[in-house]
């Protein structure tokens, strides 16, 4: 005579359906993230307490009175792109470091960023360490 119950609850849990859902969500987010395009420029903004790790290839500085300098040589705003291209000609992946005074209008800084973006140069905005 068998007195034990015949219907025992199984303590096993099947994870196959859960992994299917996770993989579907992963594929969904991978596909949708490639469709999102941003209109922002690619900038690498260093923290103010950190030091620049990469070698400084080209330095563009904008003074308070809106004077442009490329590697400490004064350049007019009209010739800035031509000067940057001539400096970056022999460099494999040029990095432009923008040092703008805090009173410089944003439009002037964006002008330099746009030149770097159009010519596929990396851009770093220099800050003063505190």
Any descriptors?
single chain, about 130 residues, alpha/beta, Nucleotidyltransferase, domain 5, five-stranded mixed β-sheet, 3 helices, 5 strands
Description:
There is one protein chain. This protein is α/β, with parallel strands linked by helices. The chain has a domain at 58-125: Nucleotidyltransferase, domain 5, CATH 3.30.420.270. Helix content is 32%, strand content 16%. A five-stranded mixed beta sheet has the order 3-2-1-4-5, covered by helices on one side. β1 (58-62) and β2 form a beta hairpin. It is rod-shaped. The relative contact order is 0.18. Mean pLDDT is 78; it is low at 39-46.
What's the arrangement of strands in the largest beta sheet? 3-2-1-4-5
- Quote the CATH topology of the domain at 58-125: Nucleotidyltransferase, domain 5
The percentage helix is 25-40%
Which regions have little confidence, pLDDT < 50, spanning 5+ residues?
Answer: 39-46
Determine the structural class based on helices, strands and strand pairing.
Answer: alpha/beta
Order of helices and strands: HEEEHEHE
- The proportion of strand residues reads 15-25%
The geometry reads as rod-shaped
Radius of gyration: 28 Å
Q: What is the arithmetic mean of pLDDT?
A: 78
Q: Can you count the helices?
A: 3
């Amino acid at each position: 005579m068998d007195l034990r119950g015949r219907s025992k609850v199984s303590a096993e849990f099947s994870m196959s359906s859960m992994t299917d859902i996770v993989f579907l969500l992963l594929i969904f987010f991978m596909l949708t993230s490639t469709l999102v395009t941003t209109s922002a420029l690619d900038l690498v903004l260093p923290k103010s307490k950190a030091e620049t790790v990469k070698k400084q290839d080209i330095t563009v500085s904008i003074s308070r009175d809106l004077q442009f300098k490329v590697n400490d040589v004064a350049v007019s705003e009209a010739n800035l792109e031509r000067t940057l291209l001539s400096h970056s000609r022999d460099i494999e992946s040029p990095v432009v470091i923008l040092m703008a005074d805090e009173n410089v209008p944003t439009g002037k800084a964006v002008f330099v960023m746009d030149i770097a973006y159009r010519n596929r140069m990396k851009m770093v905005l220099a800050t003063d360490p505190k």
